[in-house]
Amino acid sequence: MNTNELKERLKILAENNVISYRSSDLARQAFTQLQQVLHIEDIQASEMLFTHLPSAITRIERGEEIGAPMPEILAEIKTSKYYQDAMQQTKFIEKLHGYKLPQEEWDYLLIHYTNVFQQNEGGK
Amino acid sequence: MKIVIGGQVDKKEIESLVKEFDSSIETVIKSDLEAAMALKTGQVDYYLGACHTGGGGALAMALALIGRPKCETVSMPGKKPESQKVANAVNEGKVAFGFTADHKEAAVRMILEAIKNK
Known about the structure:
The structure holds two protein chains of two kinds. Chain A has helices at about 5-15, 20-40, 45-60, 70-75, 85-95, 105-120. Chain A has six helices and no strands. By secondary structure, chain B is α/β, with parallel strands linked by helices.
């Protein structure tokens, strides 16, 4: 997905109140950050992360909770060589959000980020 | 009946589950955005999609393009699908269903049974 595709996706979701405009803006900043880290414009297989991310932030804003991810998945991503990269990006999200993320949302973001780093082989 | 498989993960597996239930059901796999558009424009009758949380990547685009009243989150992490709730959703006219990938077998079966019995 490139920047224009991301913008189109976020526009559809925000205009139809599926996500908040604040979360849309946060997702755009996070996408730019990830492009810089990976040194690529077009981030492969990133649609899931950048749909999940604004959905998660919107969920938090609306006071909605979510169950924890399966422990097996969390254990698996901890073995990834990109786990620390994913951790850095999730910390960046928390900084953008301005509040501590619920543990469940933190863990889902770690899973999604690790997956995207793997799909893009850590960038160039 | 034609079903589009959208969502974000396990699309081929979901298609296989639909075909196992009833091989006469037409299926097509698309991106979440294209799948939601196919439903909106009447090219398909139902939308199925999975992700890790059931309501994010699985259903977000369908929620945006066809509206919340037509969508149902069938399962979430730690919250298994329930056949009665699924049947109620189908009977209420909901046409887009999202679920978590780990619940796909039960979710697909319940949704298709509910549609069949509608």
